[in-house]
Amino acid sequence: MDTQDRPRRPTISDVAAAAGVSVKTVSRVINNVPSVRPELVEQVLASIGELGFRRNDMASSLRSGRRTATIGLIIGDLANPFYSTIAAVVAKVARSHDTYLITVSTEEDAELEQQQFLELCQRRVDGLIIVPAGSDHSYTRPEAEMGMRMVFLDRPPSGILADSVVIDNALGAQAGVEHLLAAGHRRIGVIADSLAIYTARERLNGARTALAQAGVSYDDSLVRVGVTHPEGAARCVADMLDSPDPPTAFFTGNNRITVGALGELHRRGHDAALLGFDDFELAALMPRPLTVIAYDVQELGRRAAERLFDRIGGDSSWPSESVINTRLVPRGLGLPRS
Amino acid sequence: MDTQDRPRRPTISDVAAAAGVSVKTVSRVINNVPSVRPELVEQVLASIGELGFRRNDMASSLRSGRRTATIGLIIGDLANPFYSTIAAVVAKVARSHDTYLITVSTEEDAELEQQQFLELCQRRVDGLIIVPAGSDHSYTRPEAEMGMRMVFLDRPPSGILADSVVIDNALGAQAGVEHLLAAGHRRIGVIADSLAIYTARERLNGARTALAQAGVSYDDSLVRVGVTHPEGAARCVADMLDSPDPPTAFFTGNNRITVGALGELHRRGHDAALLGFDDFELAALMPRPLTVIAYDVQELGRRAAERLFDRIGGDSSWPSESVINTRLVPRGLGLPRS
DNA sequence: TCCATGTGAGACAACGTTGTCTCGCTTTCG
DNA sequence: CGAAAGCGAGACAACGTTGTCTCACATGGA
Asked: Which pTM value belongs to this model?
């Protein structure tokens, strides 16, 4: 008959009334302040149980000015296993710090990245881990100056000095191409993602370094860039194989490209060698077991998350760049055409 | 020299002081209330830009009592592609409702599920999507009664009446086993996850129905349950193949089990047929292309998220159970031993 | 000219919680 | 026995924002 029509959550003041104590005492009980008479503690706990009271964390963190116990993760696409692995390990580290994780996808759109960054700042997350989509991060500077902690992951930031954790793309790609060269290949097709992406640039550079050091002249017709989908990679492979002087091996710049290329080779029953950057779960089970440049994705996420919590914990040392090593996982190659 | 030592975020009161207006006027400008003189609007916006002001969303939603624009997703493990696909599509639907997503992993632990559920309620999320780990959800009832919206995904709740979205596990498994029977197999090994999991129970039931309807007597030695890892699945396959009267085909209850079983068959070069529940990206590229029971995981997540936002939007109709159909994707089987 | 009407903007309180201060009671010691 | 000290618990204000109310001033009609 009263204002019971919409169910309203009880507040500490309701609990206080029910237990016959002041709101502050309820607050003390909730926060385990020891200086409350055990008998009152019991009364209060009883009332809390009866009413189903649950503290409003938002009000609590507003008043206390402490952490919101939330961090944000800005990534390309949660459906991509690379990103979801990172999200999982970041969430795990966050949980060990009693912190929740808000994950947002930018779909590799720089504008969306900026928008979501600012929105997460409005929510007063305690910190942010960012896998950059855009190439200019000076927009983060005002927030950084006002105390927002952030760590860049997989790609370094530009326009701001901040922590980052990246993998050794160039050296990894170089090692991969060297492996193909050592197997006797001289015509090696290289397929890379958009060069707007830092990792794609670095990997292409590494591949070129290997070729140059082996004295193999650089052939433009054997390099394709801006390949973003497996289908595109398949077309590139088809295209190069149909050319007059086709490659005998392929170096593919990421797992999506590798899968697309593999599919095309599989369809054709072609025996060109294939070596890709990024490992993936089923690589060993492929029709042709795949040699890949692998690295510890979980370690990548873990280091970024731990760096972030160091910062949140008050670490104010000079920003650092942490580099994760890659390793070549040999699982066999197609034989070079002799 | 003043309290500038720790960078403090400006508040609307700082903006008001800078612009020479009242805090309420700043609030009006922020919220696009039209009844403010354009000249003042400009002043306020200028001050906002200068100070780098950004509204505190937590304070805003506390005061206004409106939504927190956050929903929670409670799943088993974000690193599992099934769950990350769901998380991605839920995040997408959420974003279209200007809402953020907090994802937590239970690691299939019922106690952790309950704990995280309650913590998310404390955060005053607007709603929750839950993939149950536990089998009793009566603990959610007090929260539901106080207005917490929730939708159960992949597995129905027990102990509470609430919306759910599930797939047709029994019928799918039945169709899968029928497919193996139609190919002439009579000795079919069935490997299932822990029967504490609803989907595993349902799928096993479906498999048994198919066997029973075909008049194949049920052989306990051909059924393994409680298999949670690919390694376990591999051991089951090895074990059954090494038995005196080995199966000629396997029905595997989920994608982890399928991968483990496939690996073992691959190692042995064994030609037993394999048909699994759950599709996975590379199934078509496997050494033996895999026939699977597939379903639209994205649709599963999408329906749950849309149902949740219906509820948040005020829909108070009777709770519904939405069922997603499965389909058999034939990609070939090993031939039965003749 | 005077009063009714309308409009823009400020004062104040409130959301649910916690930090600070105070106060009364008990304990202890000179 | 009185005063200092200690301790438990309440009153009050504040976190940053927005809802409600009020008021000053401008406008228009009688």
From this structure: 0.86
